[in-house]
Amino acid sequence: MIQLQNINFSYQKGRTIFDDLSLSLKGGQIYGLFGKNGAGKTTLLKIMAGLRFPQSGSSITLGQHAELRKAEMLKDLYFLQEEVYVPAISIRDYVKCYAPFYENFDNEQFDEYLHLFEIASMDDKLTALSHGQRKKVVISFALATNTKILLMDEPTNGLDIPSKGVFRKIMTMAANEERLILISTHQVRDLQFLIDGVVILDNGHILLNANADDITDKLCFKITDDTATDEPILYCEENLRGNLLVTENIHHIETKLDIELLFNAVMMNKERINELFNAKN
Amino acid sequence: MNTKNILNLLRRYFIEGGRKDITTFVFIVLIITLVSFFSVSGSVGDSMMVFLLFLMGLLYAGRIFNIFQPTGRVIHYLTIPASSIEKTIANGFLVYIYYNVLLVVALLLGNILGGMAHKLLAPEYHYIFYMPFSMNNIISILVLESIFLFGSIYFKQSAAIKTALVIFAFLLFFIILDTTLVGSYFIHSNPESIKEAETVFNNINGDLIEYTASILAFVFFNFMTWLRLRETEA
């Protein structure tokens, strides 16, 4: 659904954001996009949506060159910004304004998501709502558009704790076999049990692009009292519960993916991670 | 190009900004009514009112895209599922047709209301209605609006003012260039060649050249607007 090939991008001369970056993302998956501050996560989403033009390379989204921003592509793509923009109209009018652009917009779904987020009135003016409430409305709208691609930039920023739970619930409801959802975030815990694939960005390159099963097949995430293990340790972190370890999974033990530990392990063992997952990249 | 997308863009405009337009319309009608009522002839036909109406049209054209402030609006606008050409056409319709019709209706309505009020107080008064829209005026306003439309997507802040300044600077440049060239020609030429030049100028169909140049300028600036919108990044 999204194909980035040999993307080179820089904002200013001398400061390269992406250097020959290639990435392929398929439908029916929820991907988490992770990276340090300034790694270029938002820029990558913008390139996919045709909002930024790479200096070289191609960005093909839904079979179209993204930078052309053709209507056929845009009607099947929704880009949810970190700081959502809303016009000074009611929620009802917002739907009247923008839903006709999306052929598969589902009013019932929208109402249901708003209900789950406890947004009671459709007549509330969007600009009168708090930042978090605006975000809930726009997230509900984005999911109800039923576009084939949904790009979300820090969707849980600004949401209160109960709403983060609701977010996870409605994301599960909105995911389907065709839809590609790419979520860029630092709030890894919000996505812990939600994502199917992990994309890690560092220094202009994709360090890791693998699905959760592949990761847990090759890596082991465990809490132990000591660090004695025959498996090569990629990352170790001490906390009150014990030692949090990421090791290579040579004994094929089934463990649960911990994104935060994975991220740290990847950052500290770039070459080894590349060797382990290279076949998949 | 999909007509449905253009209609959806217009519908979006009217839902988001319709109320503002009604308020502006009522305000313009009120002003014209008052000016018409207090003017000696009882009808607003003077060049000042026409100038003000034109100015409002240009200000409106200079704000039509208005997508750069606040931050986030540009992404919101660019990702609306319609192509750049559909967005340009929708905004062109609003600037060239909708808003000009609104101004003409406001002028008509204000004129009639002011004239009627004047006649109530002075029955001997003969109401003369005057609409100051000649073909030349219409072409000039459309060309100027196309420049302001381009300015509204080219400049990120205070687009209308910046566009006006650029036009002013260009005009000044051409006036200086024209004065210098013509002045130097007259100083350095003999009376016979001046006479020849005058004959050549008199044989040129000035109106045709003006209309052609205006149409070309109109098409050019609309094309530039589309191109700029297509190239806008967020």
CATH architecture of the largest domain in chain A: 3-Layer(aba) Sandwich
Largest interface: A-B, 29 and 24 residues
Rounded to an integer in angstroms, the radius of gyration calculated over CA atoms of chain B is: 22 Å
Give the overall shape of chain B: flat
By secondary-structure content and strand pairing, the structural class of chain B works out as mainly alpha
Task: Tell me the count of domains of chain A.
Answer: 2
Q: Which residues of chain A sit in consecutive blocks of at least 5 with pLDDT less than 50? A: none
**Tally of distinct domains of chain B:** 1
Walk me through this protein's architecture.
The complex is a heterodimer of chains A (about 280) and B (about 230). With about 280 residues, chain A is of the alpha/beta class. Chain A folds into two domains: about 1-205, P-loop containing nucleotide triphosphate hydrolases (Rossmann fold, 3-Layer(aba) Sandwich), CATH 3.40.50.300; about 210-275, no CATH class. Helix content of chain A is about 30%, strand content about 30%. Chain A has ten helices and 13 strands. Chain A has helices at about 40-50, 70-75, 90-100, 105-115, 130-145, 160-175, 190, 210-220, 260-270, 270-275; strands at about 1-10, 15-25, 30-35, 55-60, 65, 75-80, 150-155, 180-185, 195-200, 205-210, 220-225, 235-240, 240-250. Chain A is globular. The mean pLDDT of chain A is about 90. Chain B has about 230 residues and is mainly α. Chain B has one domain (about 5-230). Chain B is about 80% helix and about 0% strand. Chain B has helices spanning about 5-40, 45-60, 75-80, 85-120, 135-155, 160-190, 190-205, 205-230. The radius of gyration of chain B is 22 Å and the shape is flat. The mean pLDDT of chain B is about 85. Classes of the chains: A alpha/beta (about 280), B mainly alpha (about 230). The interface of A and B includes residues 52, 78 and 81 of A.
